Amino acid sequence: MKLESRRIESFLAAPDPAARACLVYGPDRGLVGERAARLARAIVPDPKDAFQVAAMTADALLAAPTRLHDEAAQLSLMGGRRLVHVTDAGDAVGALFARYLADPPAGDGFVIVESGDLKPRSNLRRAFEGAKNAAAIACYLDGPREIEALVREVARAHRINLAPDAVPYLVGSLGGDRALSRRELEKLALYAGDGGTVSRDEAAALVGDSADLSLDDAILAAAEGDPAACERALTRALAEGESPIRILRAALRHFAQLHRTAARLDDGANVDEAIAAVRPPLFFKIKDSFKRQLRLWPARRGAAVLAALVEAERQAKSSGMKDETICRAALLRIARGAMQAGSQRAS
User: Fold this and answer.
1) CB 338 within 8 A of CB 297
2) Which pLDDT does position 320 carry in this prediction?
3) Between 20 and 30 A from 101 (CA), which of 80, 223, 257, 333?
4) What's the confidence (pLDDT) of residue 212?
5) What does the pLDDT read at residue 124?
6) Three-state SS sequence of the chain
7) In terms of C-beta density within 10 A (0-12 exposed, 13-18 middle, 19 or more buried), how is residue 183 classed?
8) Which pLDDT belongs to residue 208?
9) Closest CA to 43 of 21, 24, 60
10) CA angle, corner 42, sides to 11 and 8, nearest 5?
11) What are phi and psi of 251, to 5 degrees?
12) C-alpha radius of gyration, the chain, whole number
C-alpha cells in the first residue's frame, strides 16, 4: 500500500502490525535516509546491532537472492524482531520483492528497503504499493512548509531563539534536500549554543544560500559561456538533491530577468539604470556577472533561450527521456551558445 502523507508520521512511530516490509524512496535521498532510520528504530532498539539487524545492498541481494528470505526468517539471538535493511535498491530487485511479499517467511521479521526516485510504473514501487502486507513511503524534496517545520524543529531541539526575520530567510535559503538542510541548521545551532538567539544577519553569514549555491553557479556559468564550470556545478547540484525541473525553472527565471533588462537597454536605458530596475534587486556579488551576460544575451537571443527552456521543461515532464539528461543538455547548449557569442565579440 502507498501511504498517504498524513499517515507517514504515525507509521514511522508505530508501523502497522500487518506490514512486513516498507519501501522508502524518492528524489530527496536525505529524507529517505532519515525516515528509514526512524523506521528502523521503531522496529529494533539498536539498528546497528548485528544480532538483530542484517544490512545489505541490493547488489549483494541480487548475487544471493535467497538471502532475503533466509535473513528475514531468522530469529533474533537477543529476542525481539528481526530487521533486514536493504539499501541502493532499484527495479532490478522489483521481481524479487514481489515474490517475497507474496510469500513471506513465518514470524515477524521486517524489511526496510531504501531507493532513489522511482517512476510510477517502477516494478519495485508496484510490488510494495500493490501488497497488503507492505508499505511505500515517498520522500519528495522539501517545499517551504516542510523547510519551515524543520527550522522550528531544530530550533526547539537546541532551545535556540530565531529572530522573526531569520525564519523566512532560512526558509528561502535552504534547499529541498532534508539532510543538507539539517546539517546547515545544526551548524547554526552549534554557533548559537543552547538557549542562544540567532539574528537574520547571523543566519545569512552562517548558512547563506548554501543549498542553492551549486544551482546558481550552474546557471551563471551557462549564461556566461563556461561549459566546463556549468557541467561541474550542475553535477554537484544534482548530487545534492536538486530536481532537474527546479533547475530548469530557476534558469527560466534568471533568463526572464536577463531578457527584461536587455529590453530596457533596447528602450534607451543605460546599463546601470536597467540593472537598478531589476526586481528583486540583484545580489551585489553577481552584478558584474550580470553585466557581462547582458552583452552576450541581447533581447532577441534571450527570447530564444526562454523558448528553449520552456520546451526543455515540457520534454522533461512528458517525454520518455530522463529529466536529468534533458536538463543537462539544455544548460550546456546555453553555455556553448554564450561561449560562441563571446568569441565572436572578441574577434
Assistant:
1) yes
2) 66
3) 80
4) 54
5) 97
6) CECCHHHHHHHHHCCCCCCCEEEEECCCHHHHHHHHHHHHHHHCCCCCCCCCEEEEEHHHHHHCCCHHHHHHHCCCCCCCCCEEEEEEECHHHHHHHHHHHHCCCCCCCEEEEEECCCCCCCHHHHHHHCCCCEEEEECCCCCHHHHHHHHHHHHHHCCCEECCCHHHHHHHHCCCCHHHHHHHHHHHHHHHCCCCEECHHHHHHHCCCHHHHHHHHHHHHHHHCCHHHHHHHHHHHHHCCCCHHHHHHHHHHHHHHHHHHHHHHHCCCCHHHHHHCCCCCCCHHHHHHHHHHHHHCCHHHHHHHHHHHHHHHHHHHHCCCCHHHHHHHHHHHHHHHHHHHHHHHHC
7) middle
8) 56
9) 21
10) 20
11) -65, -40
12) 24
Domain limits of the chain? 5-138, 144-208, 211-342
> What is this structure's pTM?
0.58
pLDDT given for residue 216 in this prediction: 82
Q: Which three cell numbers stand for residue 8?
A: 507517514
CATH for 5-138 is 3.40.50.300
**What per-residue confidence (pLDDT) applies to 100?**
97
For the CA atoms of 239, 240, 244, 250, the dihedral, rounded to the nearest 10 degrees, stands at -140
Query: What is the per-residue pLDDT for 347?
Result: 61
Cell of 307: 523558448
Q: What is the pLDDT of residues 53-63, one digit of tens each?
A: 999 999 999 99
Low-confidence ranges of the chain (pLDDT < 70): 77-78, 175-176, 208-214, 285, 319-321, 346-347
| Interatomic CA distance for residues 56 and 89, integer angstroms | 10
Q: Rounded CA gap, 247 and 244, in Å?
A: 5
Q: What is the pLDDT of residue 77?
A: 67
Query: What pLDDT is stored for residue 211 in this prediction?
Result: 45
Domain covering 144-208: architecture: Orthogonal Bundle (1.10)
- CATH of region 211-342: 1.20.272.10
Residue type, 21: A
